[in-house]
């Protein structure tokens, strides 16, 4: 398979609509690639909290429409990153106006919505995303012709139990769009490799470049194989990172080094 991670720069001064058009053009340029991945909240910026409610859109809103057309034109599977989703009225925890979610969209080569994932772990420690958005509660996998995607988002990367759940659901390629800050870039690469090694799966982690609401972004999108080897890594700026990988290596790795079979489940809490 061939995948392209589009490390989009998100900077002040570019409108959301202008960025949608620019990103759609980038997606169309990936014709011939099997899978294209975009970052988290690339329409607004992951730290532009004041823009979440203003730019929130329904699941099949303008970002979906633009990305669906681009995916069709390019003939690619597209993980369209995530958008601030405004749910139906009364859904979720915020009441009458409809809850906000950080929602990832996965589109088929025909432009159909194959899956949507509402981010489970919201970042902010009782501020920002953690209070402005509701939490999802469902793990999402997406069967592709040659692999099964497991979908997570940014801060989810710090919670290995989520990825164990995805693997148990059949995931072989873990896709993680993010708006990860530069000041914690070392954690980004470390955790991406750890999730690959412990789950014996590919990790495709796509971040943003630029600065969101004064927060410099890490960039350094990364593709890691099931042995933890880095197949490709971007720099700090806007970049298209394209890599070939062999989905069959997942099964081979799990057969050659069957660590997942030795998991011990249902351990009791220690007695005090």
TrEMBL record:
Keyword Hydrolase annotated: yes
GO terms, molecular function: hydrolase activity
SUPFAM superfamilies for this protein: Carbon-nitrogen hydrolase
UniProt keyword list: Hydrolase
Gene3D superfamilies membership: Carbon-nitrogen hydrolase
InterPro entries hit by this protein: C-N_Hydrolase (IPR003010), C-N_Hydrolase_sf (IPR036526), UPF0012_CS (IPR001110)
Domain of life: Bacteria
Pfam families linked: CN_hydrolase (PF00795)
Domain CN hydrolase intervals: 1-247
Sequence similarity: Belongs to the carbon-nitrogen hydrolase superfamily. NIT1/NIT2 family.
Name of the protein: Carbon-nitrogen family hydrolase
